[in-house]
Amino acid sequence: MDQGGNDSGWRGSLEGWLEAAYEALLDGGVDAVKILPLANRLKLSRTSFYWFFKDRDELLSALLQRWREKNTGNLVTQAEAYAETIAEATLNVFDCWLDRNLFDAPFEFAVRSWSLQSADILAAVQAADQTRLEALSQMFTRYGFDPVAADVRARTVYLVQIGYISMQSREDLELRLQRIPQYIEIFTGTRAEPREIERFLSRHRGRTPE
């Protein structure tokens, strides 16, 4: 088995197989992530898969790790990013909700759907939830909130977004951006400074809503 990601040609590449698995998961759920359909999608032989992965389970593990690194890793990074105020810190986290390069909402939905079929995946999702909530709670604690208040506010921020994802809610980007100052006030108990809102909006105007 070849773990190199740069091997290309008739057998494809590790990243190519992983990307095909990702697309299949989003399109059809975990049951669609099977070796032969992926080979057909990539126009490669089935046997070329085994240059990169021992079996389907190893591919699924790599897919889950990709989800962890992207969605949990980036959310934690954003929660820990420098900010002068709790409003600005929360806006840093909100970058995740509007930038699929930071937090992939369709991937999140697909993995949570997968967790309904697997106790192991459910445990992974619950562990990710706990890690994310702890990062958000610590963010509020850094800005002077007591532990109970920090925990409740972290849960409010996080569970509202997971609700958006689980409901596959869609809204116009401009409408969502208009609501950001009110979300900040509700979630943090403070008003964001105009300059903080403007910096946030400048990062997201013109973006396709996730």
Description:
The protein is an all-alpha fold and 210 residues long. It is 68% helix and 0% strand. It is built from 9 helices and no strands. It has helices spanning 14-28, 35-42, 56-80, 86-98, 105-114, 119-142, 147-166, 173-188, 194-204. Helix 3 packs parallel to helix 6 and helix 4 packs parallel to helix 9 (194-204).
Task: Please describe the topology of this protein.
Blueprint: H1 14-28, H2 35-42, H3 56-80, H4 86-98, H5 105-114, H6 119-142, H7 147-166, H8 173-188, H9 194-204
Major sheet attributes: none
The span between the termini is 36 Å
> Radius of gyration in whole Å, from Cα?
19 Å
Uncertain segments are 1-8
Brief descriptors of the model:
210 residues, 9 helices, mainly alpha, disordered N terminus, elongated
Short description:
This protein has helices at 14-28, 35-42, 56-80, 86-98, 105-114, 119-142, 147-166, 173-188, 194-204. It is mainly alpha-helical.
